[in-house]
Design a protein that fits this description.
Layout (H helix, E strand, L loop, with lengths): L2 H20 L2 H8 L8 H6 L5 E6 L2 E2 L3 E2 L6 H11 L3 E5 L10 H9 L4 E4 L5 H9 L4 E5 L6 H13 L3 E6 L2 H9 L4 E5 L11 H7 L7 E5 L5 H10 L3 E4 L1 H5 L3 H9 L6
Parallel strand pairs: 1-4, 1-10, 4-5, 5-6, 6-7, 7-8, 8-9, 9-10
Antiparallel strand pairs: 2-3
Helix pairs in contact: 2-6, 4-5, 4-12, 7-8, 9-10
């Protein structure tokens, strides 16, 4: 496990101890009895003829610092949906990304799009918490799990709660774990967890080993139609884009550019 990821996971364990006291699992389970149904995440990404777009709500990152000074999840969700996004991703880690779990519900109230909770999920409690926060999908980072059987248990737990597990991989070793865990949706992150450098070719390298029946999402480094075309040709059928959209002069223009890839096929 890369040093930064190890640091984040260590902090997450401390956060969980506090969170479990503030919001006991029993309280979460009681509230889920009346929870509304989840929105279809995978299906939303399979609908478009071309490349599907997952637009991300993110305030900061360890490598780039603060990206947006003030987050209004409702306004961002509306802007992304109006621009043609097919799903949303909400980064909820507080310490390293300055995220908030409540942004998920706020985004869903403002739009009809399904929402992926992007965090460092290492405990079953967080899966129940994700459903409580109204997430429709949950990111599971393969590198956070030493054994494939543990990742598989988490994948099953997410599915049992009617959410879509998106297993994120960074290399072929991660992919082996993801496939053993029977992941149906695989996110290939082009950012190296150790150096934080982005190599768009990572998607092509890893995608070659992904079975055809899996849905591939390419993450990080999607700046324009050029990168989008590269990952589309490699087999990705969706892209998760955060920083590029957040900094775009025109969100609709960039969204159209990205989602236009593959439509001519």
């Amino acid at each position: 496990m890369p040093s930064m990821l190890r640091k984040i996971v260590a902090n997450k364990k401390k956060e969980l101890e506090k969170r479990k006291k503030e919001l006991p699992l029993e309280q979460i389970l009681a509230s889920l009895v009346a929870a509304p149904p989840t929105r279809p995440f995978k299906e939303s990404l399979l609908k478009p003829r071309g490349l599907a777009l997952i637009a991300e709500i993110k305030k900061a990152s360890p490598s780039k610092g603060v990206l947006v000074k003030v987050i209004d999840a409702r306004k961002m969700a509306i802007a992304y949906e109006d621009a043609g996004a097919h799903a949303l991703s909400v980064v909820t880690d507080d310490k390293f990304f300055q995220g908030k779990g409540e942004w998920i519900a706020e985004a869903k109230k403002a739009s009809n799009l399904p929402v992926l909770r992007k965090d460092f999920i290492i405990d079953a409690y967080q899966v129940y918490e994700s459903r409580y926060l109204r997430a429709d999908a949950v990111l599971l980072i393969a590198a956070c799990f030493t054994l494939a059987k543990d990742l598989k248990k988490m994948v099953q737990k997410v599915q049992d709660l009617s959410m879509t597990p998106v297993v994120e991989v960074h290399n072929l070793a991660d992919l082996v774990k993801a496939l053993k865990a029977e992941a149906a949706v695989i996110g290939i992150n082009n950012r190296d967890l150790g150096s934080f450098k982005v190599d768009i070719k990572t998607t092509a390298k890893v995608a070659k080993k992904v079975p055809k029946d899996k849905l591939i999402i390419s993450e990080s480094g999607i700046l324009s139609a050029k990168e989008a075309k590269l990952v589309w040709d490699a087999g990705a059928r969706a892209v998760l884009v955060g920083e590029s959209l957040l900094k775009a002069k025109s969100i609709p223009a960039l969204a159209r550019e990205l989602t236009g890839v593959g439509q001519e096929v």
